[in-house]
Amino acid sequence: MAEARSKEALVVCSDRNMNAGITIWDLETGEDLCHIPTCASPLHGLVCLKNQFLLASQVQRHRSFGGGAIFTWSLNKPQVLHRSYPLECIGPICSTKDGLFLVGGAPSGNAYIWEISSGKLLKIWRAHGKSLSCFSISGDDSLLISGADDGVVCVWTMISVLDISDSEQCVNLPSFYTWSQHEAPITALLSTSIGLNSFMISSSVDGVCKVWDLTSGRLLQTHSYICGVTAIALDPDEQVLFSGCDDGSIFINQLDIGFEDNPPIILGDHSMVLSGHKGSITALSFSINGSWLISASEDCTVCIWDVRNWQIIRKFDHKKGRITNLVVVPQISLLAEYARRSLPRLHVSVLDKAPNHKDKSDVVSTLHTRRIPEDHIQSSGFRSYTSMVQQILDLEQGRTSEAIQMKVETSVENRLWAMSMTKHMSAMNNHLRSRFLDLMQYQLPAHPDLTIEKRKKQKSSDKEDLRETPA
């Protein structure tokens, strides 16, 4: 147990066929630790929930479910825990840092958000005009960022996304920011915080990475490369940008984020290039301890780079197909004993296929519309059809103890749900208020320490000095 506590494991998957599954390697020795069968996940289609569960969207049709699927596994068990079948085929997925909500994107441009613990589909909205390609969520879980094949990046407040007062499907949800400066599909999104400021980095097939200020919405930097950028990552200190390209190279650039009026265009530094792959880079990540950079490629290999000298210290061959996703987890999370001891333990449910904002009590009102066979009426202990109808009406109007108990349970459940949502939205509101104050402080004049009275006195003093000055 003590040895596994300090070790790390690399989780990878492919999109070639369902038999490829998910492979888990020992990051230090390359040993096969576990294989999870039956998984074929697209780019950005794999997430790990607080080192307890894996969720992966599937690219292939399943049985009669033409919309694809999302599978859930416990990290310490290779058997599928849940199979969920959304309305549409889901590509990229992303979860909030607290593990409460899951966001998924469809080729139609629709975005979905579920509550993970209950499986409730909270909202479907039209996010983009073309297929969604990637998501990112800010470090404080207050902003959702989406990218698509139309080259557009949208920023949404989680408060508006989680507002389920409008239950209409595919609503036009207004975005907080919309940026359309890229000229080709978006390939990756990263959100980061440096000091008190929050930033977002977007990459595209157009060979450009852009750095955005999430507080003001301004473009701060543009990094330009000679080939399309397919994956990006930040070092643990969030000061260095790593850009993987479609020719297999990985460029290294210092961010040096400032607040210049004219955003600079920074050319990729060709002297700082890592070359170890023969195919397009599909994923980049850092080890948990920050000592290794991990890169995956369409050439079916994974390279482990030592950050001290940028040499490849280990190379994995994934013969089951190109690697589309990689995640690093502590090895201890693969042990059943850790799963029993880990607190708090997340609860994961089957994801709903369609949104349902009705209370459970609403189901009772539909009972009288259902036609019950006559033989069932006779065997159910009802004296007559009239008495049966009367019992149904009593149930609907809350006259029986069963109906009262049902309403009480529904009321308690709704109250717990409302308390949880209120707490979560209150936290996000505090984060947004803090960002607004940061923005106001950023827009103050050059001498913010002078109050209005001080400025008036300063102007009067300046006029007196002018009068006393000889002509």
Can you walk me through this structure?
Strand 1 and strand 2 form a beta hairpin. The longest helix has 42 residues. By secondary structure, the protein is an alpha+beta fold. About 7% of the residues have low confidence. The strands form 7 sheets. A 5-stranded mixed β-sheet has the order 16-17-18-19-23, with no helix packed on it. The chain has 7 helices and 29 strands. It holds the Pfam family WD40. Keywords: Repeat, WD repeat. This is Protein ROOT INITIATION DEFECTIVE 3-like.
* Rg, Å, rounded: 27 Å
| Beta strand % | 25-35%
Average pLDDT works out at: 80
Work out the helicity level: 10-25%
Largest sheet: 5 strands, mixed
Protein name: Protein ROOT INITIATION DEFECTIVE 3-like
WD repeats: 125-158, 179-222, 274-315
Pfam family, one: WD40
Biased composition (Basic and acidic residues): 459-471
Give a brief description:
With 471 residues, the chain is an alpha+beta fold.
Tags for this model:
alpha+beta; about 475 residues; repeat; 4-stranded antiparallel β-sheet; about 35% strand; WD40_PAC1; WDR18/Ipi3/RID3; 7 helices; about 20% helix; 5-stranded mixed β-sheet
